[in-house]
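hey
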């Protein structure tokens, strides 16, 4: 996968499942990671960084399974600069048709200080570890963490060592989101000019968005000769996140006239994966986010609407269909049949079998009875919401709340736990708090609620609310989600969904008996 500076192709390296998932609270389950990896592979991402195999048994298992299931994409795992990390990584990716080991070390003065390594000692370590990785696989990526704050002469020296030791991709991370476009370009340009062997490897750019310049910095690096952009869906990632995949890919497509580089990404798949990543990570996409925000294609001001009606190109630089948004999102109503529902779900990227369709159709009818118009976003919420709830150990059977100006607000709740109904009335500071107190009393647990978030799925007072809940138990994080036209019901179901996920996780992490 070596790309020279003259190549017109830019490799897209997605790290949603590693750098994105590393963002506090964005933890995904094993199955969610497999699903996202499959979507990335299907949409034409060149390299998927599937995780950090040494970090935990869970990370290792996810990377290994993603490697086994991979089709087109290279599957990459991350490892620090030591043999144990690298061996674990090699073991995790080895079943991929195209495996890659990614090893890194912080090269800036601040990073050299922490392990108290001299420049020479670090250079030796880079030589040893890259050589070791290269003996295990032909495709080795080496990253100089905090490259943008590393002395240029030292950066050149260690990159030369990594190339000589067999690295095929050299990644130049802007770890703390500190650089700016011109500096980003100059750095790549200088490295390609000065480092012996630079023309035989691919240079990669890996930008964080602390100053909001990640996309601009990545594209500037490409202008200077980088041929791999590292990015995440929705820009997910620690702090202000990473470069957003959808932004760089669409920028290269829309402004091909001035940035004549191609990617393999099928841009029509962007919206679906964006929604799914938002859902499983619990990190909602801001309304005005470029490309995938709810308002990205909304032209509401009078002057814009007038222009749009006359000619869409007046204000639209790309078509909604190009990113997978359908022209009209008003789809079904209560008279719509099963075939229409299946057809629409297929268009939204859901492949539903007969049994699943039966279940979704029942819930669709219930929703259509309560809501006049069922939009695409409603259908997506429906699909994501409890499709396998029938197997859950805890179910919400009945909920009635009393709320309003007179305190205390209360919730009368019946939960079915392992097939047995339990009822409780609890009070709280508002109906959601009362409901959560009732759940806590009916199913006592020590997990701590870390996040409670509500989003309207569509417009209008009859819109469904999607509630996301994140909980932590012994350092492990689980999330739950649910949608309903009643916000309190959605909240109760999201909490219960998180508890069911917690039970599954407890079961999986139980020590095996010998
Ligand atoms: O931001 C960074 O430096 C990283 C490295 C591990 C590549 O994510
Ligand atoms: Zn990073």
């Amino acid at each position: 996968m070596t790309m020279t500076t003259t190549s017109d192709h830019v490799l897209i390296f997605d790290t949603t499942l590693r750098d994105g998932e590393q963002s506090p609270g964005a933890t995904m389950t094993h199955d969610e990671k497999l699903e996202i990896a499959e979507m990335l592979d299907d949409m034409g991402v060149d390299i998927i960084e599937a995780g950090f195999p040494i970090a935990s048994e869970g990370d290792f298992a996810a990377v290994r399974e993603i490697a086994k299931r991979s089709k087109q994409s290279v599957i990459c795992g991350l490892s620090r600069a030591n043999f144990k990390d690298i061996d674990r990584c090699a073991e995790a990716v080895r079943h991929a048709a195209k495996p890659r080991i990614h090893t890194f070390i912080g090269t800036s003065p601040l990073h050299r200080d922490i392990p108290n390594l001299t420049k020479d000692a670090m250079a030796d370590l880079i030589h040893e570890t890259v050589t070791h990785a290269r003996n295990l696989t032909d495709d080795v990526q080496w990253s100089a963490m905090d490259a943008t704050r590393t002395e240029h002469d030292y950066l050149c020296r260690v990159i030369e060592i990594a190339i000589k030791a067999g690295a095929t991709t050299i990644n130049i991370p802007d770890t703390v989101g500190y650089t700016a476009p011109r500096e980003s370009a100059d750095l790549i340009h200088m490295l390609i000019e000065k480092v012996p062997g630079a023309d035989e490897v691919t240079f990669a750019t890996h930008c964080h968005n602390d100053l909001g310049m990640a996309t601009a910095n990545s594209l500037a690096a490409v202008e200077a000769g980088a041929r791999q952009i590292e990015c995440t869906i929705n820009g997910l990632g620690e702090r202000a996140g990473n470069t957003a995949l959808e932004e760089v890919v669409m920028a290269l497509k829309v402004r091909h006239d001035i940035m004549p580089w191609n990617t393999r990404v099928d841009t029509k798949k962007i919206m679906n994966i964006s929604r799914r990543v938002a859902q499983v990570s619990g990190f909602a996409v801001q309304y005005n986010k470029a490309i995938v925000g709810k308002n990205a294609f909304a032209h509401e001001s009078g002057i814009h609407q007038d222009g749009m009606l006359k000619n869409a190109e007046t204000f639209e630089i790309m078509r909604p269909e190009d990113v997978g948004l359908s022209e009209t999102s008003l789809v079904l109503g209560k008279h719509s049949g099963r075939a229409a529902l299946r057809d629409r779900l297929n268009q939204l990227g859901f492949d539903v079998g007969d049994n699943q369709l039966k279940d979704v159709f029942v819930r669709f009818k219930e929703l259509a009875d309560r809501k006049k118009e069922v939009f695409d976003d409603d259908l997506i919420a429906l699909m994501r919401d409890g499709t396998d709830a029938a197997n859950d150990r805890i179910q919400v059977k009945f909920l009635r709340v009393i709320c309003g100006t007179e305190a205390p607000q209360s919730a009368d709740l019946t939960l079915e736990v392992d097939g047995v109904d339990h009822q409780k009335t609890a009070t709280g500071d508002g109906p959601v708090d009362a409901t959560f107190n009732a759940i806590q009393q009916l199913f006592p647990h020590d997990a701590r609620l870390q996040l409670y978030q509500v989003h309207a799925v569509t417009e209008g007072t009859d819109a469904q609310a999607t509630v996301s809940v994140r909980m932590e138990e012994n350092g492990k994080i689980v999330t739950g989600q649910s949608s309903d036209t009643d916000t309190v019901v959605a909240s109760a179901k999201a909490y219960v969904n998180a508890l069911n996920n917690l039970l599954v996780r407890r079961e999986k992490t139980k020590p095996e008996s010998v």
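The first helix runs from residue 16 to 20. The chain has 17 helices and 16 strands.
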